[in-house]
Amino acid sequence: MPGNRAVAYKGPGEVEVLDTPYPEFELRDGPGVNPANVGRKVPHGAILRTVATNICGSDQHMVRGRTTAPAGLVLGHEITGEVVEVGPGVEFIKVGDIVSVPFNIACGRCKNCKEGKTGICLNVNPERPGSAYGYVDMGGWIGGQAEYVLVPYAD
User: Fold this and answer.
1) Nearest alpha carbon to residue 44 among 93, 113, 103
2) Does the predicted TM-score (pTM) go above 0.70?
């Protein structure tokens, strides 16, 4: 299994590249991860090898210390990658596909998602509707400024 390196928030005005675990189809505890998500199984997910990722203006709010981002939070929520693994619940995405991932995370199954309101998905953030990769208080999903990243609802 490959290693993983990621860009993480260290403190106001400071980021670092650190070694981090390779993603799995189960969420682990870590900086910013909501305790209610720890141990959550993700059979409908895919693991990507990041090909390209952006630094968004909202990442700058965290880096500049304007938020409550915890040290060690892996940043980034605009991801393009190659699928290297898929969970057993994935139907339409295949290993080898190149995919572009939106910044927000949505299950595609809840009432809001079915109404096209994927930015306020009810199932991905235990604290409130809506979630994003690598962003403070948005469910604790690991960001895309990493070599490998988990996309929880791949289809």
Assistant:
1) 93
2) yes
